[in-house]
Design brief:
alpha+beta, four-stranded mixed β-sheet, 7 strands
Length: 112
């Protein structure tokens, strides 16, 4: 079932408040990677962070309700083909070019 495919990991404070960069929730390809990224954003809450798997269906549902997600290279490589498969209008990301500009995440939001 495509909805249950794991795309990556998302970090929360107290399992309720997702960690975001700007207005986009961060999704990384591994637990250690998402924790590393959120520690750089907000190190003072390090003991409050928890992670959970970010599944395709949950991400799409969040996007359909106006949410934006910032994917790292690994997580977007999982998300992109599934999004295209179900007909979502998403762009291909050029992570090599983004990294040259110092950006590790590709932000996606749906036009609703």
């Amino acid at each position: 079932m495509i909805e249950s495919k794991v795309i990556g990991y998302i970090a929360y404070i107290d399992k309720e408040y997702p960690i975001c960069s700007g207005d986009a929730c961060l999704i990384a390809g591994s637990e250690s990677e998402v924790l590393s990224k959120v520690m750089n954003i907000n190190p003072e809450n390090r003991d409050s962070y928890r992670t959970r798997k970010a599944r395709f269906g949950d991400i799409v549902n969040g996007m359909q309700h106006g949410g934006a997600y910032a994917f790292d290279k690994e997580s977007y490589s999982r998300f992109f083909p599934l999004a295209k498969q179900v007909g979502l209008n998403v762009s291909e990301a050029d992570f090599e070019e983004m990294e040259k500009q110092g950006d590790e995440f590709f932000t996606v939001r749906l036009d609703i």
